[in-house]
Design a protein that fits this description.
2 copies of one chain form a homodimer.
Chain A: E1 6-11, E2 15-19, E3 24-25, H1 26-33, E4 51-56, E5 59-61, H2 69-74, E6 76-78, E7 82-84, E8 88-91, H3 122-128, E9 134-140, H4 152-164, E10 169-171, H5 173-185, E11 189-197, E12 201-209, E13 217-223, E14 227-234, E15 240-247, H6 257-264, H7 269-292, E16 299-306, H8 308-315, E17 337-338, E18 351-354, H9 364-373, E19 382-387, E20 391-396, E21 401-406, E22 427-433, E23 440-444, E24 452-453, H10 455-468, E25 488-491, E26 494-500, E27 511-514, H11 515-538, E28 548-553, H12 561-566, E29 578-582, H13 584-594, H14 596-608, E30 609-611, H15 618-626, H16 639-648
Parallel strand pairs in A: 1-8, 10-12, 13-16, 16-18, 19-28, 21-30, 22-24, 28-29
Antiparallel strand pairs in A: 1-2, 3-7, 4-6, 4-8, 5-7, 9-11, 11-12, 13-14, 14-15, 17-18, 19-20, 20-21, 22-23, 25-26, 26-27
């Protein structure tokens, strides 16, 4: 946990919250504290609704035309434009407040430790440095003489053996081709790069003049169906020196893995898809190198992780049978390779390793995720959920693991939701709805004008709509509310709720949530819950047996665990056992890029997981249908939510 | 030994010889029997000088205008045009005979077992088949089902493990790329090719539909400076199914390794040389496949052996420092590779292994040669000599081996000798000189009109000229003979001996041996003998300690061991300890192509050999100068030759 800096108390409800970051945004803190402050521009400062009064304490706020000079002098400011610089007492104006009576309907405030940003693993990586995947060795060789005229290669090999105990190294031809000149150009002082490819053994991939040990980098790449994320790591420190991401340019050939597979079966389709993903990666890699001012030749090794289809497309393997029952991938384990051989724009020496897959719909991203979260090393019974385009689930511990994939659909990634989008700038990531006047409190990523809604925002939508009574348990919008608020209305495609009015968005229309959006979100969450349920049953366990839940994937920066429980995406468990792992696919790739034993562990993980095919399971279909309700048709599994709904009078 | 077929007795000298081949050539048999029959057209049938009379027995002879009908009726024929079909009694006409008195000067007749053709090793190979380098496994897989939907690769891997105990196989991406289609095209019945690359481990290099185990081939290629020899082997039988060879088209960029290295240092030179040798190999491989009616896809593996420079040029490694003191090659051991990556026109799955080298001038051809001749497995103290462009020497046994390279110069390969040529059609390979009238008896390879003289012919030239008194012990032509025979004359470049008159050659001039030729031959043989001598001394041994001498390389089809001793190329040892190994570089490559343990043995051999650099050795220079004499300045090392020369009156 980071160190506490300040405390903010919100009046008149006397709600206090600890703040951990210098200059934290006040609207964001109110959101986390569960204090409703009207806000409909996402934090961009354009709606002027989030007016609060600072009664005490140090802060910094941007000037705004939304407040009069008199108001400013009295201590009023826009919460979204205000940074916290000390302990604060803040008064929430009456227009943002609602009666305490409706608080019963409210969720408990989310403790900050359950609003989890991805763990920063650099320091932990550094501590792990024991068995690096790539090592540079400096060699100060004795020049050849009449009495000692063995081969250049032999000279270097013998030095590495004697000085560093490094033996049985296979040398790439490319290294041999340059060696005689490099040794002499470096006046017999050179640095040799040795990559410990699992299965292919130690390979000398590069020899360059001088001592370059201080500049050793590797790449970790998460090959998402929608987004490619890359990380550049300093092997010496174990720290990430740059991060970059971009949309997978395969998107134009299909939004999801199924449509990509369909495209791959067209003439030249597979090749085109392979080139596309490599093109995106090349852009990401160039950005990483540029950001960190690292030369391409200073990169030695790379680890890639993606779902099974993405992995096969990247490697140019035919994914055809992933899509056809009984869903057979070409391979789950892959030999080491050279990045340049796949068209990546890095020097020919850079070696690659691809995270092994488990099955057609449980890929290397999951293997990497398990590696990153250490499920395979822990005695705790853990549920791991990676919700992206599909929902992949792993349940197990150090002794056994089972996996399944729910064809969740891409709702939480923005697909099937009218204004759905990925968790990037302008995406609504947090929402509160005032249960009295139905006004929303909205925060966007980057606090820019909203242009859509991302995964965590969608969970908020379902939960807040249900708790404020905007929708019923089966997801239908309460049409009676049209009389109370103009935000509920009959739109072109049926009933809808206006999250943001057009003039406060980056769009040329109102940003709405419509009934089909809600339907899709319920189907997605239902599918994931049903998959977890079936998987647990398959090993004779139930949700109450879980000792840990780890969330990963495209939920967005903030996921509110209790809201995820409120909608029945997560089971109702003690919130403290739930953690958010962030992009665990990337984190696992980073680990494997840095450490040889982690590469091996990754393969062990893939071997250890038993996949269970849900698509043909009748039990799954029954569970799925039962889960198409907020939170669930079996309300006994959600006692807290049942209490809330009872308090609302929504159920009896 | 082959089975004896016939006996031929030559009259009037009552010399008998056993003949082992059906339809053997009569002139060739006379040559081997040490019976002089004038013959100056090499056996082409044009000079008409080799007239003999068949007194008894069955034979077949070609009609010739060189004999009258009367002569033919009396049983006369041209020996070179006559095939032996039964036991014969042959009378040598007076014009070919010489007095028995001069027989004392003659060498003992060479026993047939010392006129050795390369051993046929096919049968021995077949007996060795225990640990093949390449294996095809047939797999009849259970198709995937809902309950058993692991990956295609996993299915195949598991079958190989369960059925054949084959584990830890790395699979090439190329195989994975085709696998899903191949398995289904073959209705789950496929053949997997597994190559056991030493160092890189087992690799699955190909999977094809159906059962193709019966068609498994590999290649062995000897990369000579002058000639590329290839062999296609049936892995199932261990037999060679085709042999082919061609001139190394690098020749246009330099005759010997030094000039090739010089060329490699020009812009684009190395690349051009690499392409040239690959081009020649592609031709050889195409010929091999064509001859044996084997499809390129049926070839799985290849082993290459060449001297260090040829090896580096083939692999595209810079040979620059091989030529500069202290003579350092880039590498002596090479990782496995794909032939197609080097530009060879074979399917991408074909894997290659290159015989390891010992030093800059003791290459993979020698390592392969030692492997082929089994020196490293024998307790016998062996001298191995491979005389090509250089003379490489190995001395040792199963416990230790030392090597050296004599910069012999290419005299025995045809270089530095006016009419020198490789041992191909038209090359004079055997010569006798009548010590009374100085008329020659000449045989060419293919018995076509002569166009030059090859290695074994050159040894004959030195020995016969010395014994007939055509030259003195220091290699000078006896000018007094000009009065006796028009074959000895002052030519344009000094004194010379006419081996063939222009009209009986394929040339437009007389085919002569001149003094500079003799000088070069003496330097070459002297260099080789000196190298052997120094190498023996370096390990505290002498020639009399040798238990076996193995000759290899470009001497030509027939080498007369006793003549080689007579000129001081070989030490005077019991002739029965000398054997001719033929192209041992190719034989060793064949062994390694067939057997994994032989590949490993090859690397062990290269590690085991200690190379001794002669170029800077004063002892070598002294030995070399001492050897520039026929047979040697230390006549006590050649007692037999000393007796002969004494009998001739050449020494006292």
């Amino acid at each position: 946990m980071p160190e506490k800096r300040y405390t903010v108390r919100f009046e008149p409800d006397d709600v206090s919250i600890d703040v951990y970051r210098e200059a934290e945004n006040l609207l964001r803190v109110a959101m986390v504290a569960g204090v409703h402050v009207n806000a409909s521009c996402g934090g961009a400062g354009t709606c002027g609704k989030c007016k609060v009064k600072i009664l005490e304490g140090e802060f910094r706020t941007k000037p705004t035309a939304k407040l009069s000079d008199a108001e400013t002098k009295q201590g009023y400011c826009l919460a979204c434009q205000t940074e916290i610089l000390g302990d604060l007492i803040v008064e929430v104006p009456v227009e943002s407040r609602y009666e305490k009576g409706v608080l019963a309907r409210q969720l408990n405030r989310v403790a900050p430790e359950h609003v989890l940003a991805p763990a920063r693993l650099g320091a932990e990586f550094a501590a792990l440095r024991s068995d690096p995947a790539v090592v540079k060795y400096f060699a100060a060789l004795t020049p050849p003489s009449e009495d000692n005229n063995g081969s250049d290669m032999g000279r270097l090999g013998q030095f590495l053996k004697q000085e560093y105990g490094v033996e049985q190294v296979t040398t790439d031809f490319a290294v041999m081709r340059e060696l005689s000149q490099v040794l002499r150009a470096g006046t017999w002082q050179v640095t040799a790069t040795v990559v410990d490819d699992i299965r292919a053994g130690r390979r000398m991939t590069h020899v360059g003049p001088g001592d370059t040990r201080g500049r050793t980098y590797c790449l970790a790449i998460d090959i998402g169906t929608t987004t490619i994320h890359g990380s550049l790591l300093d092997v010496n420190s174990g720290e990430e020196v740059a991060h970059a991401g971009d949309y997978n340019s395969q998107i134009s050939m299909g939004e999801d893995v199924i449509s990509r597979i369909v495209h791959s079966q067209k003439a030249g389709g597979l090749e085109a898809l392979q080139k596309r993903v490599v093109k995106t990666m090349n852009g990401v890699i160039a950005e990483l190198l540029d950001k960190a001012e690292v030369a391409p030749g200073e990169v030695s090794h790379a680890v890639f992780a993606g779902n099974t289809t993405m992995t096969q497309l990247f490697l140019g393997l035919n994914p055809k049978y992933i899509r056809e029952a009984p869903y057979v991938p070409t391979a789950n384990f892959f030999p080491p390779f050279k990045l340049a051989d796949l068209g990546l724009a890095v020097p020919p020496q850079v070696t690659g390793f691809v995270a092994p897959c488990v099955a057609s719909y449980v890929g290397g991203d999951i293997t990497a995720g398990v590696l990153a979260t250490g499920i395979h090393l822990s005695p705790l019974l853990t549920l791991f959920m990676d919700v992206g385009t599909n929902g992949e689930i792993v349940i197990g511990n150090q002794d056994w693991m089972v996996s399944a994939s729910a064809s969740a659909g891409p709702a939480f990634e923005g697909g099937g939701v009218k204004f759905g989008m990925r968790a990037t700038y302008g995406a609504i990531e947090q929402i509160r709805v005032n249960p009295e006047n139905f006004e929303p409190m909205i925060l966007t990523i980057g606090q820019t004008a909203p242009k859509g809604i991302c995964g965590s925002g969608m969970i908020d939508v379902l939960a807040e709509f249900a708790l404020a009574g905007v929708i019923s348990q089966n997801g239908k919008i309460n049409q009676d509310l049209a009389a109370v608020t103009n935000r509920v209305r009959a739109g072109e495609t049926g009933w809808e709720y206006v999250l943001c009015w057009k003039d406060q968005t980056q769009l040329d229309q109102d940003l709405v949530i419509c009934e089909p959006d809600i339907d899709n979100l319920i189907r997605t969450k239902g599918s994931i819950y049903a998959a977890c349920s079936v998987l647990l049953k398959s090993v004779g366990l139930q949700f109450t047996d879980l000792e840990r839940i780890i969330l990963a994937g495209g939920f967005g920066h903030y996921i509110d665990v209790e809201k995820a429980m409120a909608i029945g995406l997560l089971p109702e468990v003690a919130p403290e056992i739930v953690t958010y792992g962030g992009n665990t696919s990337l984190t696992g790739s980073k680990l494997a890029a840095l450490f040889r034993d982690k590469m091996e562990e990754m393969e062990a993980v893939a071997t250890m997981i038993t996949n269970i095919e849900l698509s043909a399971s009748h039990i799954f279909m029954d569970e799925y249908v039962a889960a198409l309700f907020l939170p669930h048709t079996r309300m006994e599994e959600f006692p807290l939510q049942r209490e809330r709904l009872k308090a609302m009078g929504a159920i009896h």
